[in-house]
Amino acid sequence: AATNMKISLISSLLLSIGYTEAFSLAPSRSQAQPSASLLSAKADISEVAPSNILSRRDALRNSVLALASGFAVSGMTPPKAFAEEGGMGSSPEHPIVVLGAGGRCGLLCTKILAKKGLYVKAVTRSGRSVLDESNKFVSYGAGDVTKPSSLADAVSCASGVIFAASASKNGGDAAHVDYLGVANTADACIAKKVPKLAVISSGAVTRPTSIGFKITNVFGRIMDYKIAGETELRNAYAAANDASLKYTVIRPGGLSDEASKGPAGVEVSQGDILSAEIGREDVAEVTVAALLSSATDNATLECYGSGGETLFGQKTGPSKLAKDLPDPSQYKHLSGESYERLFDGVLSDADMLKTGIVSDYKGVKVEPLASLM
Predict the structure, then answer these.
(1) Torsion angle (degrees, nearest 10) of CA 106, 110, 116, 119
(2) What is the crossing angle of helices 182-191 and 148-155, to 10°?
(3) Which of 156, 158, 189, 372 has minimal Cβ neighbours within 10 Å of its Cβ?
(4) How far apart are CA 181 and CA 174, in angstroms?
């Protein structure tokens, strides 16, 4: 029992200082299952028409379903028709594409989009189904982020793309997924004129002296490759110089499988200064909201849990990645209303550069992209 408690405490510590997917690059089938709050949601959203105008009967029905599914407690988005005419994901011909939909965050993004009544194409390397049952809002496609030709087909006609792929034994190492894969995805989205790309990266990627960076980077130098991928993405969009094409980068703190805490339990900041543990459900919610919000266009933001208490009554929450980093208070964003309101006041990458707090770290000993192709 004492040993188990020590392991638990060590795991919590690692998560709180920047542990990411690197600790479980090839999760078992049981690990890959979504949390109870999602599994309990059995509402048949295929019956909900894609409209923002609901009758009283429909509104009551959705409210009851949301409560029954635990969304009111967990903070997950309740099932409803969310797509506006001509908006992102509003038609099956122009779905939102989720790359890496077979992974834990990718699967959650797929489910959240479908519950909003948005059309989504869940893309995996094999093109397999990721849901247990059919859903009118979800289609499937094959695509490998390490292979530009298959990726171009996967994102063709997309109204938005979420990059949720992660390194794994079968899918490729960090160099090929987090670096080459992100670069390939950016190039494909630009070539296919996809309006917006959201990439799930990792907090602490620009702070190599932080404990979170050092511990996580041990696993295949994943942090160096993540920041290298981010850099290639920004360079690609700058070179394209097309105001109609946008991107956003989401950098979560240490990932856990705890149930969603809702927007009141999440904090967003910029500058890669703060970090803390966050559940994958909340990461998926923030990512979907960021994709759909113009407030995050061409912006990079960190997200993590806003804090609470441990089993032993200790206070938890975000902390600086390094003591010598500047005061982050003016770059923090809190909201108890919605995930979208977390983005109030978010600055674009260009404006963040003007603050002088953004690190210029781009990774070390990162090989040229051409050598990975």
Answers:
(1) 130
(2) 50
(3) 156
(4) 9
Q: Which residues contact 157 (CB under 8 A, 6 or more apart)?
A: 93, 94, 95, 192
pLDDT: which is higher, 243 or 31: 243
DSSP string for 160-179: EEEE----BTTTB-HIIIII
Q: Which residue has the tokens 């960090």?
A: 174
Of residues 143, 225, 227, 157, the one with CA closest to residue 185: 143
Within the chain, what is the greatest distance between any pair of CA atoms? 60
- Helices marked H in 258-359: 280-292, 349-355
In this structure, which amino acid lies at residue 187? D
**Which class for 201: exposed (0-12), middle (13-18), buried (19 or more C-beta within 10 A)?**
buried
Give the residue among 305, 290, 222 at the shortest CA–CA distance from 250: 290
Average pLDDT over residues 182-208: 98
Q: With cut-offs at 50, 70 and 90, classify the pLDDT of residue 128.
A: very high
Nearest to 357 by CA among 269, 248, 251: 269
User: Token pair of 32, please?
Assistant: 């890959």
Q: What is the DSSP letter of 181?
A: I
119 vs 117: CA distance, rounded Å? 7
Helix (H) or strand (E) holding 278: strand 278-279
Cα 347 from Cα 325, distance rounded (Å): 19
Mean pLDDT of the chain: 81
**In which element (H, E) is residue 149 found?**
helix 148-155
User: CA 196, CA 214: separation in Å to the nearest integer?
Assistant: 32
pLDDT per residue over 71-126, tens digit each?
Answer: 333 444 444 445 555 799 999 999 999 999 999 999 999 999 999 999 999 999 99
- Candidates 170, 13, 44; CA nearest to 114 is 44
